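Help needed: design a sequence for this.
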């Protein structure tokens, strides 16, 4: 029998910016007055989970191996997924890039493969509005929330898109499951993936998808949910929600991360100090990671957590050039190497990399064959932030593994 999602004291998550037990949910869509709001949430609450407790157990075992230094991890994919790219051919193209880049990182050992895929349809934004040819429009927040076209109608927040996001995610995760089965060796507890992950941003989407499975409460929307730099506060609805499910969880750590606050969040999310439960993703910026990351690593270690440590060397290195957001491959490589050295000096295992990478030969980041600002416009197709192309990502992988 299908169950309605419950969190906290057994009540459904409150709508809008208020989360479980009165917590505040930042970066939420404005759609509570939409006539289809309640029906959209009800449809999600009645839908089957997209992942299983057995899958989450396999992933947590693999993450525990990474946390213990016995493997690496690659987590990569689109900045924001498109509803138009969830068919089997698109998914196979994306996982082919994931596997190829993971193989670059292998260096003779196992590599856990996790995609930013199967649910990465919502994005936090620094400003709620943007200026488009002199007209203020709501910012594009991902296909789960609104459309990217520069019109008031497209940019309206529409809760019916949550149901479309669920259906698109289900299509993607079916392909991933078939690929895991194909790659799995009988009797082998290790499973390198590909697993799904996304930013668990929209509480109205995530909370109705909590389910009971095999005596556990799981978040049924993805295997590995993460919380971004804007939603990881200890008192947030996002932390409260993820603290109550059995999925492995991840946190993005930006330059404002505070050691004491991080210890508090880690204790909420990983009270049993269980290897494989917690992944921490540093995204400081190349010029700041050497100074800002060491106290965070020390605080987590003092708190007794055996976390997987990843470097996200992209989000702290975004600049504007030629009227577009971009990233310099040199800065991305620099941060990844500096992060690795910080972790090694602290006696921690550099677990791997978290990257935004396209499955095609885009020209969104500067470096390699994209050798000038004038080339950015050739194939700049991202829905949000600039992605590396596969060649740029491979160069990063090779340099990082040799560092």
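Sure. Designed sequence:
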């Amino acid at each position: 029998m299908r169950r309605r999602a419950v969190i906290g004291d057994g009540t459904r998550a409150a709508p809008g910016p208020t989360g479980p037990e009165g917590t505040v949910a930042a970066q939420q869509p404005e759609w509570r007055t939409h006539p289809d709001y309640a029906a959209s949430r009800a449809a999600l609450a009645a839908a089957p989970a997209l992942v299983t407790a057995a899958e989450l157990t396999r992933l947590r075992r693999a993450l525990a191996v990474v946390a213990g230094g016995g493997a690496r991890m690659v987590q990569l994919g689109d900045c924001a997924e498109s509803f138009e790219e969830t068919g089997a051919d698109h998914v196979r193209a994306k996982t082919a890039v994931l596997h190829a880049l993971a193989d670059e990182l292998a260096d003779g050992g196992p590599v856990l493969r996790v995609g930013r895929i199967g649910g990465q349809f919502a994005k936090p934004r620094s400003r709620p509005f943007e200026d488009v040819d002199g007209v203020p429009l709501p910012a594009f927040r991902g296909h789960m929330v609104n459309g990217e076209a520069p019109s008031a109608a497209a940019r309206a927040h529409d809760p019916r898109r949550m149901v479309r996001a669920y259906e698109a995610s289900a299509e993607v995760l079916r392909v991933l499951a078939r690929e895991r089965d194909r790659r799995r060796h009988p009797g082998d507890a290790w499973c390198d993936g590909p697993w799904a992950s996304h930013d668990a941003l929209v509480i109205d989407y995530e909370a109705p998808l909590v389910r009971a499975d095999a005596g556990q409460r799981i978040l049924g929307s993805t295997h590995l949910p993460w919380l971004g730099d804007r939603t990881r506060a200890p008192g947030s609805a996002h932390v409260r929600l993820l603290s109550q499910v059995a999925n492995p969880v991840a946190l993005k750590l930006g330059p404002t991360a505070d050691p004491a606050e991080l210890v508090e969040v880690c204790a909420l999310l990983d009270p049993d100090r269980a290897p494989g439960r917690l992944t921490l993703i540093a995204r400081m910026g190349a010029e700041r990671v050497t100074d800002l990351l060491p106290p965070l690593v020390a605080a987590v270690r003092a708190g007794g957590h055996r976390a997987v440590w990843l470097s996200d060397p992209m989000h702290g290195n975004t600049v504007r050039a030629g009227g577009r957001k971009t990233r310099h491959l040199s800065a991305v490589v620099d941060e990844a190497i500096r992060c690795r050295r910080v972790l090694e000096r602290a006696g921690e295992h550099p677990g791997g990399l978290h990257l935004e990478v396209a499955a095609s030969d885009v020209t969104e980041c500067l470096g390699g064959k994209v050798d000038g600002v004038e080339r950015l416009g050739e194939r700049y197709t991202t829905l949000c932030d600039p992605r590396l192309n596969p060649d740029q990502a491979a160069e990063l992988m090779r340099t990082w593994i040799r560092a």
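Residues 364 and 380 are 5 Å apart (CA to CA).
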